[in-house]
Design a protein that fits this description.
By secondary structure, the chain is an alpha/beta fold. The strands form three sheets. Strands 5-4-6-7-1-8-14-13-9-10 form a ten-stranded mixed beta sheet, sandwiched between helices. A two-stranded antiparallel sheet has the order 2-3. The protein has a two-stranded antiparallel sheet with strand order 11-12. Strand 13 and strand 14 form a beta hairpin. The longest helix has 17 residues.
């Protein structure tokens, strides 16, 4: 018998807030943090805006010496994980560390470290490259450093599946708890790729918005005038816990995680498959895994990147899976507020879906001003909405043709 899995803790480091309440209040209000990049001089780039995490100080959680030996993406993950444990009320001293897993992924890893050390190599030679270069760079170190910080000795790792990373990490963690390989898994995603090289690469790919003079209006999923995504950074971590363990300790439960589906497009390195067929299959798998029917789903936190192909094909995928019900359910893209957090996107959007179920409110898609005839669903335009939803999905679609969906159910004793 598979074990039931519930979400009992949330931790965040995001451009819109670093506590659950601040994050949620800004999301509902549509308070976008997108602005001119401050971390470096971006004046020569075609895109000069991003959603940066500002006023981030990890020193209250990470020793300063240790922090200097972590890339920014790892710092984000460790801080978000500790905050999630604190939010869950779990006393790590009372738990068997071998039953606690960490599954946190990053789509890109230590981009900032790679750029800095490449300059040192070129200007000062190989002997001056940091001995911590590789441990700071590699994407698994977010999970590794988190496990060290928490003393968690269970399964540890994380996927690298581009923008599907955060959702895949939650899905894999879900399976670990379901199968009894862990009782608690600290799961999510992290990213810190707002760097000159990262920005240049996406600019060259012509994937990002160039609405530099109107940064807060630049991310506009499903809108006819969308012209690309806006980069974001940060981390989201969810505590997944076996239900009976959570009940025994009297945990607050945000939602029950009930399904996961993952597919590949096998089509193109950056473009989604025509009609969004890979995303449709991921949603269908998650719904089947959850043991629910499509008409029980009331809300989808869409991948919704604000790019022409993604938004059109994701809309088509939703129609393929839900038929006429597609027009009765609510769909929103929180990337309109947060920007696109890449490998962390699915994690903070999973958190948003859990909070939507827990608090009975649906976050809006802001900047939805000119409807696209090919994107004709209910995108919760511009204003948050009160609604009690039974089942929610969260979608993530990544470069390389990676598609992932998780299904969450509003918590109820049964």
């Amino acid at each position: 018998m598979t074990r039931r899995v519930v979400v009992t803790g949330l931790g965040l480091v995001t451009p819109v807030g670093q506590t659950v309440d601040t994050f949620w209040d800004n999301l509902l209000a549509g308070n976008s943090p997108i602005d001119t990049i401050t971390r470096f001089d971006a004046s020569a780039f075609s895109t000069r805006i991003a959603a940066e995490v500002r006023d981030f100080d990890p020193s209250d959680i990470i020793d300063r010496k240790d922090a200097r030996r972590m890339d920014r993406f790892t710092q984000f993950a460790v801080v978000a994980a500790v905050r999630a444990i604190q939010d869950s009320g779990i006393d790590l001293a009372q738990e068997d560390p071998e039953t606690i897993g960490v599954w946190i992924g990053s789509g890109i890893g230590g981009m900032e470290t790679m750029e800095a050390q490449a300059v040192i190599l070129r200007e000062k030679g190989p002997d001056r490259v940091s001995p911590f270069f590789v441990p700071m760079l590699i994407a698994n170190m977010a999970a590794g450093q988190t496990s060290i910080t928490l003393g968690a000795k269970g399964p540890c790792g994380g996927p690298v599946s581009a923008c599907a990373t955060g959702t895949d990490a939650i899905g894999h963690a879900f399976r670990l708890v379901q199968r009894g390989e862990a009782t608690i898994v600290v799961s999510g995603g992290t990213e810190a790729s707002i760097t000159p090289l990262g920005l240049a690469g996406f600019c060259s790919a012509k994937a990002m918005s160039t609405r530099n003079d109107e940064p807060k209006r630049a991310s506009r999923p499903f809108d006819l005038d969308r012209d690309g995504f806006v980069m974001g950074e940060g981390s989201g971590v969810l505590i997944l816990e076996e239900l009976e363990h959570a009940r025994t300790r009297g945990a607050r439960i945000y939602a029950e995680l009930v399904g996961y589906g993952a597919t590949a497009d096998a089509y193109h390195v950056v473009q989604p498959a025509p009609g969004g067929e890979g995303g449709a299959r991921a949603m269908a798998l998650a719904i089947r895994d959850a043991g629910v029917t499509p008409d029980e789903v009331g809300y989808i936190n869409a991948h919704g990147t604000s790019t022409p192909f993604n938004d059109k094909f994701e809309t088509m995928a939703i129609k393929q899976v839900f038929g006429d019900h597609a027009y009765r359910l609510a769909v929103s893209s929180t990337k309109s507020v947060t920007g696109h957090l890449m490998g962390a996107a699915g994690a903070i959007e999973g958190i948003a879906a859990a909070l939507a179920l827990h608090r009975g409110q649906l976050p809006p898609t802001i900047n939805y001003e000119n409807p696209d005839p090919e994107c004709d669903l209910d995108y919760v335009p511009n204003q948050a909405r009160s609604a009690r939803v039974k089942v929610a999905l969260s979608n993530s679609l990544g470069f390389g043709g990676h598609n992932a969906t998780i299904a969450l159910r509003a918590w109820e004793e049964r």
